[in-house]
Amino acid sequence: MNVSSPEGIGTVLLAAGAFQFTRRFLDTPTRLPAWEPYLQKIWVVFGVFIGLSALFSIDLSNGWVALGVSLVYVYMLMQLYYYQPARMVLLAVAPFLLFWVIGSFIEHYAPTYYKHNDDFIDNSIGFSTIWLGTFLVIANRQKKTLLKVEQERAREAEERRIIEAKKQELEYLVAERTAEITQQKEELEHALVELKSTQNQLIQSEKMASLGELTAGIAHEIQNPLNFVNNFSEVSIELIDELAEEQAKPDRDLDLEAELLTDLKQNLQKINHHGGRASSIVKGMLQHSRASTGQREPIDLNALCDEYLRLAYHGLRAKDKSFNALFNTDLDASMGVVSVLPQDISRVLLNLFTNAFYAVQQRQKKGETPGYQPTVTVSTRCAGNEAVITVSDNGTGIPEDLKQKIFQPFFTTKPTGEGTGLGLSLAYDIVTKGHNGTLEVESKEGEGTTFIIKLPA
Question: Is residue 103 part of a domain?
Fold first, then answer.
């Protein structure tokens, strides 16, 4: 057959179209890059091939052309055998190529046999064409499915990449934030150490201020027993001199001697009593100045209240000689002893008594109430399993909006320089935390204040 025959040209165009279709359908630029330069120039190659065949009168419809094209095409598909759509294309074109090659050889080399069996050959090629179309549709579906899978994998890979990037970013932020928190923690720990140091200094300052109040009261209070000791000592010396003179007389008066000895004994008893009183005051001062041992001791609360009430009163009078006030006691004799921390409870009582006398002093200075008599009253009583101590005054009172704040650290109603604001705070902690008791306040502005201490007895 001549090159210009439609069948020969169709063979070349069919081959070129098959290669071009395969190039696009199977994405050979990516999957078979070595073939890509030739497939891009497929039309040029086949055009040259047609031109050369025209010059040399080559019949393109003979079976050798079909066989060569088929072998090259099958070889190319075999290179993509790992790709499932390529395997399906190979399965699709195999019958068509087989019948095409066989038909071409029979038609060219056995034309008589071809004429008698052309219907069978044409039907076979037609069947293979249907087969080709069916499996190409299947291959196309496989390609779309694989494309979706690849896209999903790509999307998942991109998501993993984004997640990994976010993870690294979060790890960096966490590390950075952890470093900041660690630095802040160290700064807070340092500030806490400084705060505790300052707190201890302030507490010690409050204790020293309390000790100062106590010392002033002791200086005044201890003077009375010392005066009694001195006076009875002088009288006792005179009695001894009289006794010695009487014993030196030749006619001794035994009744007088007995009377002198009785008076001397009474004086010594009074000296012992007032000496004990002075010793008790000094002991109380020493207890007050010591740090708490944490050991509870059975204490006579009535005696403790009476003693510190006097010391607080005389401590204020040591500062202001013009100040005078009544202090009353209503002490329950059935109270007995109560197990407490003596140093701590003494500080609580001294603070409450000092505040009470300060309140009545301030109201007296205002002079707004004619005939006003400053009065502080202390009472004790047993109430079930509790020992109750009540400290009342008729002083200035506490405004309603300030009552909730008086137990807060550093809060004070006194002018600047006259109070640290730690006295009532420490007293509240001692009673509630140190003794599991309660400390309550009742007050009315302009009429007075009452503090109520309840301790487990």
Answer: yes
- Residues 157 and 78 placed together within one structural domain of the fold: yes
Residues 333 and 423 reside in one and the same domain = yes
Domain limits for position 328 = 295-457
Give the SS3 label for residue 300. strand
For 108, how many CA atoms within 13 A lie in the half-sphere containing its CB?
A: 18
Residues 333 and 395 in one domain: yes
* Residue 432 and residue 307 in one domain: yes
Q: Does residue 202 lie within any of the structural domains?
A: no
137: alpha, beta or left, given left = phi > 0 and alpha = psi -120 to 50?
A: alpha
Residues 6+ apart with CB under 8 A from 444: 397
Structure tokens belonging to residue 146: 């694989």
| Same domain for 278 and 300 | no
Print pLDDT tens along the chain (457 aa): 343 455 555 666 777 777 788 888 888 888 888 888 877 777 677 766 666 665 555 555 566 777 777 788 888 888 888 888 888 888 888 888 888 788 778 877 787 777 777 777 778 878 888 888 888 888 888 888 888 888 888 889 999 999 999 999 999 999 999 999 989 999 999 888 887 777 666 666 655 655 555 565 555 556 667 776 777 787 788 878 877 887 878 887 777 778 878 877 887 887 887 677 677 666 655 655 555 556 788 888 998 898 888 888 877 777 777 888 998 999 998 888 898 888 888 888 988 998 899 899 989 988 888 889 999 999 999 888 889 999 999 998 988 888 888 887 766 666 655 555 567 888 888 899 888 999 999 998 888 999 999 998 7
CATH at residue 451: 3.30.565.10
Do 264 and 312 reside in the same domain of the chain? no
H-run or E-run covering 451: strand 448-456
**Of 114, 140, 162, which closes a domain?**
162
CB 438 within 8 A of CB 455: no
Residue that the structure tokens 């009470």 belong to: 356
Query: Do residue 258 and residue 308 come from a single domain?
Result: no
Q: Work out the number of other CB atoms within 10 angstroms of the CB of residue 355.
A: 24
Using CA atoms, how far apart are residues 47 and 363, in angstroms rounded to an integer? 125
* CA dist., res. 224 & res. 114, Å (int): 155
